[in-house]
Amino acid sequence: MEGKIDAIRQYIQSVFLQPGSHGLDHVLRVVYLCEVIGKEENADMMVLLPAALFHDIARPIEKEKGIPHEETGAQMAERFLHSIRYDEERIAKITHAIRTHRYRSTGKPETLEAKILSDADKLDAMGAVGIARTFIRAGEHGGEIRDAMDHIHDKLLNLYGLMYTETAKKIAEERHRYLCVFLETLIDEISLPGSLAE
Question: What domain count does the chain have?
C-alpha cells in the first residue's frame, strides 16, 4: 500500500501546477498535519493520507465552473484510486472525508479520518500561515487589506471552535491566539492618522 500512496503523491504533484492560497504547498501542509494528528489519534493512514492529498484537487474546476470542489474532488479521487486498484472499503472512506472536509460543507465528517482532515484543513487557515494565505486569497480576488480582514473576521476566527479532535484543539489554541494578536495589531495600525482608514 505504501507504493500506492507514493503513486497518489506523484499524481497530485503533477496536477497542482499553479501556486496560490490553495496550491500544492497548502496540500502538503495539510498532509503533514494529518500525519501528526493521525498518529496521535490512531487513524487509518491509508484512508487519511489519500484524502488529504486529494482534498483540494478540484479547486481549479470550482474556480472555472463554480462546481463545489469537494464533490468533484471526491469523484476524481474515486476514479484514480480505482485505476490503481486501491482497497474498495477505504475508497468509500476517502471520498467521504473529501466531501466533508470543507468549512462550508453541507455534510458533516462521520469517521475519525474525515474529522482529522477537516481539522487539518482548518488548522492551515489559522496562525501565521493562515494569515499569509488570507492575504494571497485577497490578492487573487482583486482585494486589499480590508478584504483580508473581513475574511479573518468572517471565517478564521470561527475555526478554533470547530475542531473535532483533541490533538487539533491543542494545535489550534496557539494558532488562534496568534491570529487574534495579529488582527488587533493590524486594526491599530490601519486606524492611525494617515493610514488606510483616512
Answer: 1
Contact 137, 121 (CB under 8 A): no
DSSP 129-155: HHHHHHHHHHHHTT--HHHHHHHHHHT
Residue type, 31: V
Burial status of residue 3 (CB atoms within 10 A of its CB: 0-12, 13-18, 19 or more)? exposed
Residue 196 lies in a domain: no
In a domain, 123, yes or no: yes
Predicted structure pTM score: 0.90
Over the stretch 18-41, which tens digit does the pLDDT of each residue have? Answer: 776 778 899 999 999 999 999 999
Q: What is the mean pLDDT of residues 129-144?
A: 91
CATH of the domain at 109: 1.10.3210.10
